[in-house]
Amino acid sequence: MEIDGFEQDDVEWLYIRLKVNSKLGSLEVTDPFLRFQDVKEVINWFRDLADNKPQVVRRLQFIEPNIEFEITAYDNDSKQLRIIFNWECRPKPPKNIEYYVDCSLTNEQLSRISNDFLVGLQKFVSDNQYPFDINSH
């Protein structure tokens, strides 16, 4: 996943490019399915997982239920996550099945994901393209 810009009509929403390759198939979609605040939540969630912070929510969901992240296994060195794809993040035409991919990620990989999203978000803020404060909660 990477940030690909913001929606022209509603700058609160960011276009997210999603590329998935699995043994069951591939999916690529770009759609404004996360808000600025949602991306900040993703950044913090992945960072907290990498840092083994206590009381991290098990399932990260958003106002638009296009993508969800769920912890399926947790230990100090790595985490098993399920990324669930709904609505605009499903293959077209969608079948009446659940679409998800399971990932086993080390703390280093989780930290890298968090940092990559932060860098992507900072790009829009530093270019003065985005009217939100990246540091506000």
Describe this structure in words.
With 137 residues, the protein is an alpha+beta fold. The chain has a single domain (2-126), classed as Transcriptional Co-activator pc4, Chain A (Roll). It is built from 2 helices and 7 strands; from the N terminus they run E-E-E-H-E-E-E-E-H. The strands form 2 sheets. It has a 4-stranded antiparallel beta sheet. The protein has a 3-stranded antiparallel beta sheet with strand order 1-2-3. A hairpin with a 6-residue loop joins strand 4 and strand 5. The longest helix has 20 residues, at 107-126.
Estimate the helix proportion, in percent: 25-40%
Report the sheet with the most strands, covering strand number, pairing sense and barrel closure.
Answer: 4 strands, antiparallel
Lateral arrangement of strands in the main beta sheet: 4-5-6-7
Q: Which structural class do you get from the secondary structure elements?
A: alpha+beta
What is the CATH level 1 assignment?
Mainly Beta
Number of DSSP strand runs: 7
* Count of all domains: 1
**What is the count of helical runs?**
2
- Rg of Cα set: 15 Å
Shape summary: globular
State the distance separating the first and last CA atoms: 22 Å
Q: Looking at CATH, which topology would you report? A: Transcriptional Co-activator pc4, Chain A
Q: Judging by the overall fold, what is the CATH architecture? A: Roll
Order of helices and strands: EEEHEEEEH
The average pLDDT score comes to 86
Low-confidence parts lasting 5 or more residues at pLDDT below 50?
none
Quote the beta fraction: 35-45%
